[in-house]
Amino acid sequence: MSTQPDHYYTIDKPSFAEFKDRGSRFLAYAYPIASAEEFKSLLQQLKKEHPKAVHHCFAYRLGTGTDVFRSNDDGEPSGTAGKPILGQIDSKQLTDVAVIVVRYFGGTLLGVPGLINAYKTVTSMALQLVPVVQKAVLVEYRLQFDYTRQNEVMTILKQLNCVITRQAQELFCIVDVGVPQSRLEEFEYKVRDLHTVEYNKIA
Fold it and tell me: Is the pLDDT reported for residue 1 higher than 50?
């Protein structure tokens, strides 16, 4: 049996928190993200919104059962920003989440412990303000079938809580679908039963 988890935890909407320490302002923006590209455009957007900020530090984690993550101190002393931000994402066992912390310097150096505390605190605050949601781990499949089978196929997809990501109407119906990991056997069994339906896993 696969050891891949059936579900994961993430946030489903952005949130914001602010923390102040000795004149410095730390603004944390937490986002649900689906890809590194999406994260990059959010970071660019925040840099445009806060051009006078001295640092735009961040961390994100993507995917389940994989170690896709990044953290960046953006000029702060090594290990004082990105790591504490990532630590908060991981302590809540979240994935598909990014947190960007924008810092305005207040004139007083906070030192390494002060910085770690500030980035950790503001990230924790931002993540506490937004509900954590549980989502099913999905396995991507492409189905191809004749129009006469459309109702049967759609009924099965609905029963198994599959997520349709793409639908194309050509000579045949082509549907890309995310199947919950926990219902894979059921899905394959039911689709196999509809003899004229072709289905392939999308790598």
Answer: no
